[in-house]
Amino acid sequence: MNIDIFNGDADGICALHQLRLDEPLQSMLVTGVKRDIKLLKRVEVAEGDRLTVLDISLDKNRDTLISLLKVGSHVRYFDHHYAGDIPEYPNLDATIDTSPTTCTSLLVNGALQGKHLPWAVTAAFGDNLYESAEKAAVPLNLSKKKLEMLKELGICINYNGYGASLDDLFYHPAELYEKIKPYSDPFDFIKTDDAFNVLSSGYAEDMSKASAISPEFDEVSSSVYILPDEKWARRVSGVYSNDLAQNNPDKAHAILTHKGDKTYQASIRAPLKTKTGADTLCRQFETGGGRQAAAGINELPVSELDTFIKVFHQHFS
Question: Are 154 and 125 in contact (CB under 8 A)?
């Protein structure tokens, strides 16, 4: 059996799309909202099963991964999040690079020698790696207009992945992947499938609401925004964090979104000038994790808000 396990954001979807354009096969799809990263727990495998794991932290799935390897499944793993020590098994093929200038889709692009580069560029834009995306896109010789189209597509796919649950999303990530699957050319997807227009319109509307909210706490090197317990707020939290980071590259940003259960969901962006520190901050909290430039906390208790703000400001001061 073939099983594709992937993050529900632009990076995970575009990474899988590149691999399946190169090697089409029937597989079970395992994915979820962007913050749902302990995806390996959802699968049961037998000896000889082949798993492809994309854009989820090995460190957060370590014990399950080892158990799957011990059964005798073969695992191909691409990721750019904090991994810790990588298990050494002959049936594990891991390509992991935590550099703040790369993403999973760019790692897959390297493995495929650029065969489906436009989709890797799309993912890099979606992951807020604008400089890396533009650098990777040079061989494509795209016009400025077409490059902006890939940027918008990446942002929209990424935007669809955010939410506290699947009910918050416009499309289940597996459904969005299936919509993208027939298109080797992202420009054909933009022109043909209505999903792009749905996501683009939703993104514009949600961002308009977010931009009307002032920071709750604002210092020279860092800002904290608090969004309400609304679907639009949960959808926009990550992409709004990316937007703030692009517009204020010297500052760190935290977007805290009420979840309605006495917790916040936190999206953290390190200053773009340094692209470091977000993961180490978030790992100080129980449900935190991520990568150097962008990380998050799935459940930050309201009672820990003051502590978080103090630690956040000190961390990036």
Answer: yes
- Report the chain's C-alpha Rg in angstroms: 19
Q: Which amino acid, residue 196?
A: F
**pLDDT (tens digit, 0 to 9) for every residue of the chain, 317 residues total?**
999 999 999 999 999 999 999 999 999 999 999 988 899 999 999 999 999 999 999 999 999 999 999 999 999 999 999 999 999 999 999 999 999 999 999 999 999 999 999 999 999 999 999 999 999 999 999 999 999 999 999 999 999 999 889 999 999 999 999 999 999 999 999 999 999 999 999 999 999 999 999 999 999 999 999 999 999 999 999 899 999 999 999 999 999 999 888 999 999 999 999 999 999 999 999 999 888 999 999 999 999 999 999 999 999 98
- In Å, what is the CA distance from 298 to each residue of 36, 49, 183, 301? 9, 31, 33, 10
- How far apart, in whole angstroms, are the C-alpha atoms of residue 180 and residue 191? 12
CA distance 49 to 272: 40
Backbone angles phi, psi at 195, to 5 degrees: -60, -35
Domains of the chain are 2-201 (3.90.1640), 214-315 (3.10.310.30)
pTM of the model: 0.91
Angle at 276 between CA 273 and CA 280, to 5 degrees: 155
Whether the CB-CB separation of 3 and 45 falls below 8 Å is answered with yes
